[in-house]
Amino acid sequence: xxxxxxxxxxxxxLASPSLAEVSDGKVKIGILNDQSGVYADFGGKFSYEAxxxxxxxxxxxxxxxxxxxxxxxHQNKADIASNIARQWYDTEQVDAIMELxxxxxxxxxxxxxxxxxxxxxTTGAATTELTGPQCSPYGFHxxxxxxxxxxxxxxxxxxxxxxxxxxLTADYAFGYSLEENTAAYVTANGGTVAGAVRHPLATTDFSxxxxxxxxxxxxxxxxxxxxxxxxxxxxxxxxxxxVQSGQRLAALLFTLAEVNGIGLEAAQxxxxxxxxxxxxxxxxxxxxxxxxxxTGAMPNMVHAGTYSAVLSYLKxxxxxxxxxxxxxxxxxxxxxxxxxxxxxxxxxxxxxMITDVYLMEVKKPGDSDIAWDYYNVLATIxxxxxxxxxxxxxxxxxxx
Amino acid sequence: MMMLxxxxxxxxxxxxxxxxxxxxxxxxxxxxxxVIFGLLRVINFAHGAQYMLGAFVAxxxxxxxxxxxxGALILAPIVVGAxxxxxxxxxxxRLYKLDHLYGLLFTFGMALTIEGTFRYFxxxxxxxYTTPAALSGGVNLGFMFLPIYRGWVVVASMxxxxxxxxxxxxxxxxxxxxxxxxxxxxxxSFGINVPLLLTLTYGLGAGLAGLAGVLAAxxxxxxxxxxxxxxxxxxxxxxxxxxxxxxxxxxxxxxxGIAEGLTKVFxxxxxxxxxxxxxxxxxxxxxxxxxxxxx
Lengths: 400, 295
What we know:
The structure holds two protein chains of two kinds.
Chain A: H1 2-15, E1 27-33, H2 44-58, E2 61-62, E3 65-73, H3 78-91, E4 96-99, H4 103-115, E5 119-122, E6 139-141, H5 146-159, E7 164-170, H6 173-188, E8 192-199, H7 207-215, E9 220-224, H8 227-239, E10 248-251, H9 256-267, E11 271-274, H10 282-295, H11 301-320, H12 325-334, E12 346-347, E13 353-354, E14 357-362, E15 375-381, H13 383-386
Chain B: E1 3-4, E2 7-8, H1 9-40, H2 47-65, H3 69-90, H4 100-122, E3 138-140, E4 145-147, H5 148-170, H6 172-182, H7 184-189, H8 194-216, H9 226-241, H10 246-266, H11 274-285
Antiparallel strand pairs in B: 1-2, 3-4
Helix pairs in contact in B: 1-5, 1-8, 1-9, 1-10, 2-3, 2-4, 2-8, 2-9, 3-8, 5-6, 9-10, 9-11
């Protein structure tokens, strides 16, 4: 058996994707994320496609230098991600790494990039640590974070009377951060937390955790997980009659890709928070359509956010007159962000991009008349409310 | 309320039942693996992919041919079994003369190819498959709300497991099969077509995986990754039970499902490794597995 396992792991290593070749005299952006695991639809290869769109929309060159985008699959493992990042920086002249779905990975790569004085723009990961105690002068966090999700989805459910919570939490940095932020928000608004259970990442069977949640007597079951984990939990919750017996599910991180995955029948009525919805106005719809033509799927906030991150980076390189890290980081901090993703983004000194987020409700199957038209926008949460006040973020770069 | 180890008895009963449900899948899948390994000496790494194929065949049948759950329950395993038989006949059978590792490598490569292809076309998130109307809903057992479909899975898997065990251990066909693996030349000299028997066996194993996939489709997302998530656990089940022991694989499947279910109550963080811890202990104390004959 040992021989079997050894050859299996050798094969698994061989199966990991190869990296792009060496380049020079270019602006080179790496999109590093999960392309084969539970978050492959949440970000995945479509984030790479979004990055390519941004480069094309920018004109393909910046300051007469060609722009190249490379991509790799980090398999949700921080060590694999760090190795790829190190290789990209050391031998392949990659200037900036973006996307970085999975909080544990984002924290590792941001720390490495800080040491190497390289820019990271995280769009797929959620932990507030990235712009909190572990912030970096070269690290930026676009799109959303666990605080925004807590304020959005958590806030909406507390308002509707959900005052006793039980958490199903993914057992790693992201889950803890999301649970902690949401629990803090719930208790600050007069609610209580009845308990929590931590499940391993990529759990296929939630029944046992759901039974524990059911037995807790909580009015809201907060799903502090993401991707396929949340999908499975929601699907199985309806099997065990959780919603029918009066408990509510709060999918704290759920995007268009996952709604599409479980279908409107199972997802209808869910309240969720995203900072982008393709069918919100004409401009977003046009972008959505272009994205759809390339990928066969409409973009969620991670895809649109990655587009915005790449575009902003290229604008900053142009404004700085080169791709030297300090100068580009300074420009990224000072330039407002205005593109299809956000009309009024600003970047705080801790690297947090402050933008409006939207509280959505998933439509009933009968109410959705065009494909991928899944949401009603319930409310717009202003950035200042959605994200932690930079001065209170715990980021050592800011005088507290 | 009565308590046991600080957990209410009712909650414990619920978890035991949930463990039994998961154990049903482990048993069904490890059964197919054990049949293939026991009779062909092939370590079938493609088993997870075949399980996934079963679920996808059911999904695609519903989408494009309008064949519902019950039809798929019969047809999908046949389709997957036929694909398995085709692969065995055209490719895998050429490797029997070589070391077992070649069969392992071949099936592992096949699994990666199949999964990669499906991921390319269907994405990783997977697609929903609706529970058949006759089995939707649930019953309140007092200590838990049992979805009828899950109860059906337990019953179906037990019937299938016993059926396969009976087929191989108690029928004439099974006797031929077992004899053909012991001494193929001798059996062939009695006029029995041994290569055909082996093809059928691989087809049966693959079909069982496909059947488990159809059973799983309404519970989990039909996703290209569903097989690779479960296959490693199933291998552990087979190792604990004893490579090649059919009854061992079945019993161990249920037992480990329950062990995992209980871990989820007492220490959920360890729930995905408890099976491997048990495997390690069994390998140290009884290297041939709980039910294996010492080779």
